[in-house]
C-alpha cells in the first residue's frame, strides 16, 4: 500500500528542490523509496501470475542537468518499470508517482530504427491495431494510444493511408492517471494490476509483430 508520506515528501521536495534540504531529509526519502520498492515487488509478483518479468527497476531521483537550463537537482516524481522476460515478450510496464500526476502505463517509448520501421510496415499492411485500441477495456483504462510522431508521414509511407495516425508515430504507449485519493486507497494495487492486464493485448500483438518478418516468419 502506498503511504501518504510519499506525497508529502514529494510536495515538500517541490518547494525545496536543493541538495541541502534533500540531505537533511535523507531518512524520509529512504522510507519513501522503500515504500515504492515494496509496492514494486508486490506488483512484480502479481504480474508474474500471468506474464514473465525479467526486471523491476526504480529510476534515480537525481536529474541529469548537464544539458538542461533547469538546474534543479531532483525529479519531482518517483518512477520505475518492469521489463518483460526474453525477446519473445516486448514492451515494458511503467509507473510514476507524483502529487496530482500519478500514472500507470506501458509500451514502446524509444524503439530502435529497425523496430520502428517494422511496426510502421505492419500498420501499413494490417488493421489489427485499430481493433485493439477500440476494445472496451482499452478505452476504459487508456482512452487512446499515444506517443510523439512525425508531422505528416515517415519517408516512404503514404500520408493519406487510412492508418497514418498510427504509422506516423515514433512512440506507441498508453497511460492511465490516478488521483492522490485513488493511490492511497487499499484497492490501489488491484487497480494497477488490472490496468497492466489491460495492456496485455497490445503487448501480445506488438510482440508478435516484432518477432516476425513481413511474411509472418519468426526472426528469433
Task: Give structural notes.
- The chain has helices at 4-15, 19-24, 26-47, 113-125, 128-133, 136-141, 164-167, 180-184, 188-210; strands at 53-58, 78-84, 92-97, 102-108, 172-178.
- With 220 residues, the chain is α+β, with helices and mostly antiparallel strands.
- The chain has a single domain (4-210), classed as BirA Bifunctional Protein, domain 2, CATH 3.30.930.
- Strand 3 and strand 4 (102-108) form a beta hairpin.
- The longest helix is centred in the C-terminal third of the chain and has 23 residues, at 188-210.
- The model has no long low-confidence stretch (mean pLDDT 97).
Describe how the helices and strands are arranged.
Blueprint: H1 4-15, H2 19-24, H3 26-47, E1 53-58, E2 78-84, E3 92-97, E4 102-108, H4 113-125, H5 128-133, H6 136-141, H7 164-167, E5 172-178, H8 180-184, H9 188-210
Helix pairs in contact: 3-9
